[in-house]
């Protein structure tokens, strides 16, 4: 029996850059992610069934233009965690931006990681569609 391509897919994960690999792991751990080493230069960064691969590789132009979107059901729970983590002082990152409703209907908080990657942590309203 021949499988179609979509049926063969197990996961799809981005490789996220790390300027300082250990600091990036600490940053994500402080946000509530589980860190699982893969090799000395790669780590599986996970929230339940969702994950990305953190890599000990950094190019400033790439990292400063890299964005991740995290679709959540309760942005306030996330914002409380972000605010309590004191990321700007602890990691020297740009100050996280508190949640606000964007014109497309999502309530979004913005967080910059220790390599400059911009995270959109979003709770989608009905007008924004809820698929992510």
Descriptive overview:
With about 130 residues, the protein is α/β, with parallel strands linked by helices. It has one domain: 2,3-Dihydroxybiphenyl 1,2-Dioxygenase, domain 1 (Roll), CATH 3.10.180.10. The protein is built from 5 helices and 8 strands, in the order αβαβββαβααβββ. The protein has helices spanning about 5-10, 20-30, 60-65, 75-85, 85-90, and strands spanning about 15, 35-40, 40-45, 50-55, 65-70, 95-100, 105-110, 120-125. The strands form 2 sheets. The chain has a 4-stranded mixed β-sheet with strand order 1-4-3-2, with helices on one face. Strands 5-8-7-6 form a 4-stranded mixed β-sheet, covered by helices on one side. A hairpin with a 2-residue loop joins strand 2 (about 35-40) and strand 3 (about 40-45). The longest helix is centred in the middle third of the chain and has 11 residues, at about 75-85. It is globular and about 55 Å long. The N and C termini lie far apart (about 35 Å).
